[in-house]
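User: My collaborator sent over this chain with a note saying "see what the structure looks like." That's all I know about it. Can you take a look?
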Amino acid sequence: MNALARLRVAAISFLNPAPLMWDFEHPPHSDSLAARYEVDRMLPAACAARLASGAADIGLVPIAALATTPGLRILPGSTIASKGHVRSLLLVRRACRPLGKLGTVATDAASRTTLAYARILFRMKWGNPSVPFLPMIADLDAMLQRADAAILIGDPALMALEERANRFERTGEELVYHDLAEEWRALAGLPFVSAVWSTAYGSPSVESIAEDFNQSRIHGLQNIDALAAEWAARIPLAEKTIREYLTENIHYALDAECLEGMRVFFRMAAQCGILPAYGFSVEGSG
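Assistant: Without extra context I'll predict from the sequence alone. Here is the result:
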C-alpha cells in the first residue's frame, strides 16, 4: 500500500456507533483524520464483506465475520456491546406463539452476528433448534405477515419499540418483544458483543490506528448531548431517548468482560454448528 494513500474505513450507518465516529466527523480532529482515512458508511454485514474482499482496510465488523474471514485482526479498545438491556436487538413474536413452537422467523439480514446469537438462543435456551429463518428487509409489519416472529436490529429495532403502543392500537395484535442482549445475558452471564474494529493483516501501523479510533471513542462519549441533538434531526427518536440509548444501553469499551463474552459466543456457536471453531487475540493488547 502506498504510504500516502488514505486507509479505507467501512463504518456502520446506524445510530449505535455514533460515539465511535466523533473525531472523524467533528473538529478539531476531523480534518487531520480525513487526510489519513476515507470513511464509507453501510450496513453491518457490508462492513465485513468490504474487509473480506480487500475493498476496505479497516472495518467495524460484526464479530461472527471474524470466524469466517481469515486474516482479520481485532484492534484493542473499542466495541459495540451491551451488558444488559440494549433495545436495538429484538425478537418480536406473536403472543399466541411460544418461542419453542415458532414455525418461522423473519430476519433482518443486516447482521449475521445477531442471527448467530439468535440461533444459539433457539438451540440452547428456547428449545427450537431448527426453526427456519427467512431473510427480509427490516419492516415489522411485512415480516409478521410472512412469519411467526421477526428479528430487528439497529435503528429499525429502536423505532419498533417506540411504535409499540401505536402498532397495538392500529392492529389490535398482541406482540411480545424479547431483548436479545438480555436473553443472551440470562443464558451466558456475559455481555452481548456485536462488533469490533478490525483490520486485515498487512495494514500498517496497528498501534497508531488503534489510538486514532480509541481517542475518537473517548471524545464521542464526552459529547453525548451533541450527538443526541444531531441524531434526533436524522431519525424519528427524541433526544432523551437517544441520550439514554447511547449512555445506558450501549457499552463501547472492549474490556475483559466483553472479551470473555466473545470467547463464550464463539465456543457456543461452534458447539451448535453455527460457526467454525475460532480463537482470537487482540492486536496491541499485551
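A starting point for your reply to your collaborator: The chain has two domains: 7-82+193-271, 89-188.
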